[in-house]
Specification:
Immunoglobulin-like, 3-stranded antiparallel β-sheet, single chain
Length: 132
């Protein structure tokens, strides 16, 4: 597996109770810094917005947005810095229930040929603002 540091920072939304919350239809603004500790080639670097279920029953999920950030040779100790935007769909909303949970994540994937991908995940919450 490639030795690489991934720094992922999310912007936008609002921080509530230690979680970053986004409204359906809003945009997740992100910032990524990749710093390889060795030279290597990657097929691509992707930022994805995904949801999945946890709990009873079969696991379900989907990648609802994806953006390519880099590809090709990455040089040791040379950082790749990239901004990205991902649009949050109208549903499903985040949910924590007795039998099932719906979990949202922003995932950065460094796709390395013939090796295990390097992945960094950041959970988010997708729910509309409550009417007052």
């Amino acid at each position: 597996m490639a030795d690489i540091d991934i720094e992922l920072t999310l912007k936008g939304g609002e921080v509530t109770g230690g979680w970053r919350r986004y409204e359906p239809g809003s945009t997740v603004h992100g910032w990524l810094r990749l710093t390889p500790r060795e030279d290597f080639n990657c097929n691509r670097v992707l930022a994805r917005l995904e949801w999945h279920t946890e709990g009873r029953g079969d696991r379900d999920g989907d990648c609802v947005a994806e953006v390519g950030l880099a590809e090709g040779d990455l040089t040791a100790n040379s950082s790749v810095i990239q901004d990205f935007n991902l649009t949050v769909p109208s549903e499903p909303w985040s949910y924590a229930g007795h039998y099932i949970n719906i979990i949202w994540e922003v995932i950065v994937v460094v796709d390395i040929p013939l090796s295990r991908d390097v992945i960094r995940k950041e959970p988010i919450v997708v729910v509309p603002r409550r009417a007052r």
